[in-house]
Amino acid sequence: RTPKKIDIVIIPPWWGSTWAYFLYFLLVFGISYLVFRLIYRRKLALEESKKWQHIEEMKSEFYTNITHEFRTPLTVILGMTEQVNDSLNKSIKKACSEPLKMITRNGRKLLDLVNQLLDMAKIEDGKYKINKTKGDMVWFLGFMVENFHSYAKSKDVELIFYPEFDKLIMDYDPKVMERIISNLLGNAIKFSNKGGKVIIHLNKIDVKNTSMLQIKIKDEGIGIEKSKLPFVFDRFYQIDTSGKNKNEGTGIGLSMVKNLVELMNGSISVKSVVDKGSTFNLILPITNIAKMSNDDLKYKVPFTVDDDNVIIDSGSDDKDLVLIVEDNKDIAKYISSSISDNYSVRYAENGQSGLELAINIIPDIIISDVMMPKMDGFEMCEKLKKDIRTSHIPVIMLTARVAEEDKLKGLKYGADAYLTKPFNIEELNIRLGQLIVLRKKLLDKNKDPNNWDKIKQSKSQSIEQEFLIEIKGKIHSNIDNTALNSQFLARSMRMSDTQLYRKLKALTGKSTAIFIRSIRLRRAKELLETTNLNISEIAYDTGFNDPAYFSRVFKEEYGMSPSELRE
What we know:
The strands form 3 sheets. The chain has a 5-stranded mixed β-sheet. A 5-stranded parallel β-sheet has the order 9-8-10-11-12, sandwiched between helices. By secondary structure, it is α/β, with parallel strands linked by helices. It contains 19 helices and 12 strands. The protein has 4 domains: 16-123, Orthogonal Bundle (Helix Hairpins); 129-285, Heat Shock Protein 90, CATH 3.30.565.10; 320-445, Response regulator (Rossmann fold), CATH 3.40.50.2300; 451-566, Arc Repressor Mutant, subunit A. Helix 9 links the parallel strand 10 (365-369) and strand 11 (395-399).
């Protein structure tokens, strides 16, 4: 018999079938997709959260800066009004002329800031209306540039207006163009380096068969980083050019410029290279639809700074020397005019130049703003307090930042007093007087040579104590050297003669030469009391090359001659 073959096929259970595996795949894919989608949504939510946090931070900074912008002109307005009021019984014309000019100028500036905010609100609500008139754009822009010459001169910047044609009749809104050009030209001058140029170039170009006006404003200033360029026209956005401080502003200027340009059917762009400058390219359509206007301009460009010099130096050598570090010239001039009867005054326009000038002249006291370009007041104060040449100088900080943490920050960096804008000039004078009195008490204590020996090395000693210990050590190690004089000691202390003189004068009330002589005489007195050396030997051992002169100055110092002391 032939055996039969039977094929038996075992059907797998449902969970092992092909369809089951397909379902497994779909399930895994679906779960993976859901997990990925969940992670992606969380990532988006986190980015959105960071974005809103960044916006809130910019808003917060905006309000901080706008407060500063308001408080600075208000300080001048209120202070100069008070000064005018106090001067009414004097020669009225002479006393009131300059203060009234400053009041008017700062009042206009404050009004302009308010108008910017109102215009921004109208633009956002779609209620801002463009009122075009027909006129000569070349003449209008030339007039605008002319109004900025005094401001450019005050910044040591050359202003060049270069139109490719003599006349261009077109439609434009004078108020809108004033706002646009004021912001662009004002920024170009403000951010330019001293000795630089700002060029305003006018040209006609064709864009898609449409005649357009091209206005280029080019500066040779600090420039903008490439990564920051896409954001320069964002509202509230400010470019941190130093990583530590910012040029003052509200962060709405360029944002408003872009909005106004677009309302006029134009466009604006910017190209920039760090440390070489920026070029803003404004393009507007040339149309001739509006009615011709024969009216003269009835306004002045609000963004102007008069080129009156701030009082650079006033008073006499007998007065205490005050250094004012303030980038707003009106504030500096107001403070200077208010204190110059009692103090000599010097001026610096930012923290960097303030630091350099303080090291050079060693003032008796410093009044400084906080928010300044190049170096802010906090950083300047910190560097002054860490520098042995300037550590003794009291610093009064002036700022519109009223938050408690800002005050604590100022005190942390070594500020001796902190006043908020608008400040009372009488309070400033009182603080000045108090700090000068405290400094003189320290001076009286250090005048007595007996106190010099009490200054010993310790972990808690001040920089001033370290300075006195070091300078005493330099003198003692060279006490028998007749070449030890003011110049020798200044070189060994790595200071100039003037710096050392003013530092010692501030701490001890003695000039460098008298201080050296006092140390020599004190050592001579010790030798007279503890050794049997004759008077001539002691004179030579303490650096005096004339025993007769030694005896004379010894008697001046101690009221008795060396021989009388030994008796």
